[in-house]
Amino acid sequence: MxxxxxxxxxxxxxxxxxxxxxxxxxxxxxxxxxxFGAALLDKRDYSLVLAGTNNExxxxxxHGEVHTIKKFYEIKDRPCTSNLLFxxxxxxxxxxxxxxxxxxxxxxxxxxxxxxxxDAFSIPHDLRILKEVFTLKPGGYRxxxxxxxxxxxxxxxxxxxxxxxxxxxxxxxxxxxxYARLSEIYQSSKAETAIPLK
Length: 198
Ligand SMILES: [Zn+2]
Known about the structure:
Layout: H1 3-30, E1 37-42, E2 48-53, H2 64-72, E3 84-90, H3 94-102, E4 107-112, H4 114-119, H5 125-134, E5 149-152, H6 153-158, H7 162-189
Parallel strand pairs: 3-4, 4-5
Antiparallel strand pairs: 1-2, 1-3
């Protein structure tokens, strides 16, 4: 990917998290849901198609990714998934990896890793399920395979030019700080929810 295109992509992904996913997630957190969000962008111009957030208080399968896919299929004149980028704030769990695959996306981009979810968000379930059900160690699934190619957004940022990187890092720090704040709210209220894997 050319440098300029990479910078445009990183800018678009961060912008969607800042302006479209986070506002929904703040409301979701207030209702007792987890911090995980997702969005779909048009591959051609990186414009937003749809953003969504975790809604496990309604249904434990409504992870940010699956709930966004559910809402996407409620759009009457929706684009084809092969023309879209899939953005997940956190590396998708095994259910969401499969959902992304079954829905026909050939890519996804994520900001926080499974290890971040376990260590910074106190949500170890993604890695536990991969280990218990699939006997996979952290990093043990194929991040590029016959179905899709996935990208860790911080790796994309690291590959950007110096001039763009400083601005991206400042925005990424602000995003991390906001997620840390939201995570604290979730963790302090999760005992009151009926979510099976809190
Ligand atoms: Zn999931």
